Amino acid sequence: MGVVTEVTNQYQKCIDACVKCSQACYECFESCLNEPDIDRRRSCLKLLIECARMCEMSMAGMSMNSQFAKDHCKLCQVACDQCAKECSMFQDDHCQKCADVCRTCASECASMSGF
């Protein structure tokens, strides 16, 4: 259910997935900065931030019932899929958990956007 209205109830599951994914990406980013092989993670680090920001934009679009909400979610699906792929290359617990959260978000975005 929406926080102050019921207008976005149709999007709530995807909104929640985007919020969780954004948080997971930021947490994984912080953890990756402390890994000894940080040079190997440059692409992953960039994707983590891009994915987190895309999730935030998608959540905002859905929250305001934007006419572009489905378009944002389609892009978010792509970003989350790519981030999951990149994170899954690293065996750290935080990267594996982040990849799982990204996959879930990608699935929710795909459902929401109808693609």
From TrEMBL:
Name of the protein: Cysteine-rich protein YhjQ
Keywords: Plasmid
Name of the gene: yhjQ
Keyword Plastid: no
Gene3D superfamilies xrefs: 1.20.1270.360
Domain of life: Bacteria
Pfam families, alphabetized: Csp
Record keyword Phosphoprotein present: no
Coiled-coil ranges per UniProt: none
